[in-house]
Write a structure and sequence with these properties.
Blueprint: E1 3-10, H1 15-26, E2 32-36, E3 42-47, H2 53-63, E4 66-67
Antiparallel strand pairs: 1-3, 1-4, 2-3
Helix pairs in contact: 1-2
The protein binds dioxo(di-mu-sulfide)dimolybdenum (9UX).
């Protein structure tokens, strides 16, 4: 069953940051990025299975930000 999960990200300050996170996290197999909210720093994804937190962390760091 499809589930959503949310993560808090620190360091995003503009829409380019949002796009970088959307791009990198969207490359995790099976993960769809539902939203990246610049103001709150919250990333929400959907997937059939909960992705490994370390995979999400790696993608966020690849984009240049930190998982809180
Ligand atoms: Mo511009 Mo957002 O450098 O980091 S992409 S502020």
């Amino acid at each position: 069953m499809k589930m959503t999960s949310s993560y808090e990200i620190s360091g995003m300050t503009c829409e380019h940051c949002v796009r970088a996170v959307t791009q990198e996290v969207g490359e995790i197999p099976g993960v769809t990025v539902e939203s990246v909210d610049l103001d709150s720093g919250f990333l929400t994804i959907s997937s059939q299975q909960l992705p490994a937190r370390e995979d999400v962390r790696a993608a966020v760091e690849e984009a240049g930000y930190e998982l809180v």
